[in-house]
Amino acid sequence: MKITSVILLTTIALCVSLCCPEDDDYNGRNYTIENDNLLSVENNITTYNLGDTLYFETAISNTQNTTTNESISIIDFTQNGEPITYSLLVYKLNSYGNLDRLVLNEDSITAIEGSVLVIEDPNNPYLQLQTVLTENSYKNKFGVTLLEPGTYYIGGDYNAYNGKIGIYTYNEFGSLNINTKIVNSNTEGLYVFTID
Length: 196
Fold this sequence. Notes:
The chain is mainly beta. It is 9% helix and 46% strand.
C-alpha cells in the first residue's frame, strides 16, 4: 500500500510539473522603452511643392531595450500577436502664429504598408496608424499628397511631456509603453515642413 501511495503521489507531482504552464518571463510587469528612431519622414524632407507626396514611415524592431536595459520582445505584449496601433496629429500654423489641428482629406492618403484611418472628429482629429509585423519589425508606411500651401507640423500632442509620442500595448503578461519622437523633430517633438 505504501509503495502504491508513493507511486501515485510521484506520478501526480510529475504530471503537475509537466502539464502546468511555465511562468511567463514578464510576470505582469510594466515596461518602458525610450527610442527616438522609430518614426520618420522619408529622406527628412522639409520643403515640398504643392502636389508632392510626403512619405511617413514607422519601423519598430520586435526586440527593444527597456529603460532598465532589459531586452524584450514586443510581440510578447500584443494581444495574440496583433499589430501595434498609435496616433499621429497634424497641425497647420495659422495667421496668428498658433497651431490648428487638421482633419486630413482621406483621399489624399495612400497606405503602402499597414493601414491609416482618418479620424474626422472636429474636436479631436487625428490619424490612427496600424502596423504590420514583417521581417521581425512592426512597420507602417503611407504617403500624403500635399494639397495646400503653408507650414505644417506632424507629431503627437504638442503639450505632451518632452514632445513624445506614446505607443502602448499590453496583454495578460504585462504592459509596454514606447516613448518616441519623429526623427529630426523639433524640441516639442513635432516634425516641421512647408509646402510652397
